[in-house]
Amino acid sequence: MFVTSLKTGGDAISKDPSWIPDPLTFDAYPWVAQNLAGSFEFTFVVSVGSSFLTVFLTIFGGYAMARLNFPGKKALSIAYLAGMMFPPILIGVPVYVLFARLQLIDTFFGLILVYTSTSIPFSIWLLRGFFKSIPPSLDEAALVDGCNRIDAFFRVILPLSLPGLVVSALFSFLMAWNDTLFALILTNENMTVSVKMLFWITGWYRSTFWPGIMAGGFLAILPPVVIFVVLQRRFIQGMTAGAVKG
User: 244: pLDDT confidence band, cut at 50, 70 and 90?
Assistant: First the structure.
């Protein structure tokens, strides 16, 4: 993508592609900056918002599924698993009708809400496994020292669950950042990066500015890559937590 973004429009669709652009040009990047600046801001706000909301909701759900016994727990676990089995396209029309009635079309909150709801099942199961890997004796020790269940959770368990929270946040961020389906259905003017670039592809192959699309795609993958590189140690810890006993 990066190499193609440095080519002219004609060289990008040449039958004899080359790894070294000749001539080399950066014209695609000012063009992308002009056309995608607002979309990048919109996508970033939606992705970060859904990430924070997902973590906030699932830390309690994951802890309850790991530590507490309550009526309907098994059925709820099965429901969360079932929620991950259905492809998002199945709920596209109902979500649009519901959000249209709630006047949430083309809004930050609308996309944050739908991305949070689709991230919750995986995040709950992820955090459930992570909380199960934390010895229950730590909860019991905190209760003996005078903490109630809530104090024990925030003072003892939550700090130890940071790697799991990082994985949950990263997963929900990437899901929102990469999504095209719901963003295409629920936005009109405030388009995300993936939707805006989708409309750059015209019906006629040669009329599409492919260097611009490649430049936009290259810039779009940078935030997830940077976040993953910075948080990869926590990510690996969170993904492997609870994989083995003892």
Answer: very low
Angle at 121 between CA 97 and CA 237, to 5 degrees: 140
**Residue 161 gets which letter from DSSP?**
T
Give the Cα separation of 132 and 193 in Å (integer): 38
The pair of three-digit structure tokens given for residue 4, joined into one six-digit string: 């193609």
Hey, what amino acid is at 102? L
Select from 9, 29, 7 the least CA-distant residue to 18: 7
Domains for the chain: give ranges and CATH numbers: 26-240 (1.10.3720.10)
Measure the CA–CA gap between 74 and 65, rounded to whole angstroms.
9
Is the distance from CB of 175 to CB of 115 less than 8 angstroms?
yes
pLDDT at 4 over 50: yes
